[in-house]
TrEMBL record:
Pfam families: ABC_tran (PF00005). One of its GO terms (cellular component) is plasma membrane. Belongs to the ABC transporter superfamily. Macrolide exporter (TC 3.A.1.122) family. This is Putative ABC transport system ATP-binding protein. The lineage of its organism: Bacteria, Pseudomonadati, Pseudomonadota, Gammaproteobacteria, Lysobacterales. InterPro entries: AAA+_ATPase, ABC_transporter-like_ATP-bd, ABC_transporter-like_CS, ABC_transpr_LolD-like, MacB-like_ATP-bd, P-loop_NTPase. It comes from Luteimonas cucumeris. One of its GO terms (molecular function) is ATP binding.
Length: 230
């Protein structure tokens, strides 16, 4: 299967006063199109840093990142912003919904950056909410929804532009077990039935079991890859 994401000798270093802290050390990684990857490792191992680099939210200190045939490490800030808008959907632990907007209007937000008219934005949002099982809650505001339902809205917002890549940072970290399993099942469905490539950071081994592969990081280095049974 063709690679969607490739990194070569990827490093990330932060300056903290006079001290340089190298968070990632020479990461070589291949993620196939249609894969579902769980990134695991102890706190401070570089999981979220790697996720942010793959999603174009941060720039590497050195090395290469290629996504869908494009070298995103060479892009300017403006080019990277447009690339994220066109190709990446983000799901975070705390939903990041606008409290004064309905579910539908929250899902429409990424489409405001496109050429689509109001009627088509509404239609696309309705389709995304139907995919996540919340068509009947489209008029509800976040405070009228459970945590699991709010995360479904966040996933609908992430997929409404039909992105190539879904980036999920602890998407079940703020949910009870039942809600977490529902969200993980939804991500698995998006991967298997809608061919979404997903990279997910998690601390939860049970969450990682929903992925097709688990990559383990330790002290900024990839130390293990585990393939899960289908």
């Amino acid at each position: 299967m063709a690679s969607l994401v490739s990194t070569r000798n990827l490093t990330k270093t932060y300056q903290r006063g006079p001290e340089k802290i190298e968070v990632l050390h020479g990461i070589d990684l291949e993620i196939a199109k249609g894969d579902f990857i769980a990134l695991m490792g102890p706190s401070g191992s570089g999981k979220s840093t790697l996720l942010n680099l793959i999603g174009g939210l941060d720039n590497p200190s050195s090395g290469e990142i290629e996504v869908g045939g494009e070298r995103i490490d060479r892009m300017s800030a403006g080019q990277l912003s447009q690339w994220r808008s066109d190709h990446v959907g983000f799901v975070f632990q705390f939903y990041n919904l606008m409290p004064m907007l309905s579910a539908q209007r929250n899902v429409e937000l990424p489409l405001l950056l496109t050429h689509l008219g109001a009627a088509q934005r509404k239609r696309n949002a309705e389709i995304a909410l139907t995919l996540v099982g919340l068509a009947d809650r489209r008029s509800h505001k976040p405070n009228e929804l459970s945590g699991g339902q709010q995360q479904r809205v966040a996933i609908a917002r992430a997929i409404v532009s039909d992105p190539t890549l879904l980036i999920c940072d602890e998407p079940t970290g703020d949910l009870d077990r039942q809600s977490a399993e529902e969200i993980l099942g939804l991500l698995q469905t998006l991967n298997r039935e809608h061919d979404k490539t997903i990279v997910m950071v998690t601390h939860d081994p049970k969450a990682a079991e929903y992925a097709s592969h688990t990559l383990h990081l330790d002290k900024g280095t990839l130390v293990e890859q585990v393939q899960h049974a289908a």
